[in-house]
Design goal:
Radius of gyration: 18 Å
Number of strands: 4
Number of helices: 9
Distance between the termini: 43 Å
Amino acid sequence: MDHKLVLWGVGTSRTIRAHWALHELDLPYESRPILPRSGETKTPEYTALNARQKIPLLMDGDFRIGESAAIVAYLAETYSTPDHVLIPREKSSQAKWLEWCFFVVAELDSTSLYVMRRHGTNNGLAHIYGEAPAVVSKAAEYFREQLRHVDVALTDGRTYLMGDQFTTADIILTTCLTWAIDYGVGICDSALPYLERTRARPAYQRAAAANTPKKPAATC
């Protein structure tokens, strides 16, 4: 690897995706553990790197890319090896992989869980975007409806979304399922053993540790 990898961001369901992909691919990288809505994404230094002032952000040499799903796809396509691969190589399988990635990001994350986060009062952002209990309830209902597609996939005997191969689609789905549990939405029964499998992966354990914000040192 010729370029130095630097990942900005910790502490969210989206930042862990990038940490996880880096650990699955066994890539050395430097972590810049800034947090969202802490003022750290709005500094002149970070804004110069990412005008959207969002995390995560991956720097690969002079190349920069944001959006967690795009980051893990870039890493998978750029750095997968025969021993560490996160993307199908056969074209039709790659198309199905993309379909899963787009589905999870669009229908489970952005349309459902993030709507709940924006307008919910428990661990949410209602103080910024406004409290909307009816919207939160409908978003949770929509999440459960869309999850039936995951349930169908996981009840046909496959280990991961793409069969026996673990891919970035599993990274994104696992974070959404974990997020849903934290929000009390409830997930399908088939997702429980699936979560046990994905979160038992050593790379996930290392990524979870890397994504945990460090507590400030105690002062005397």
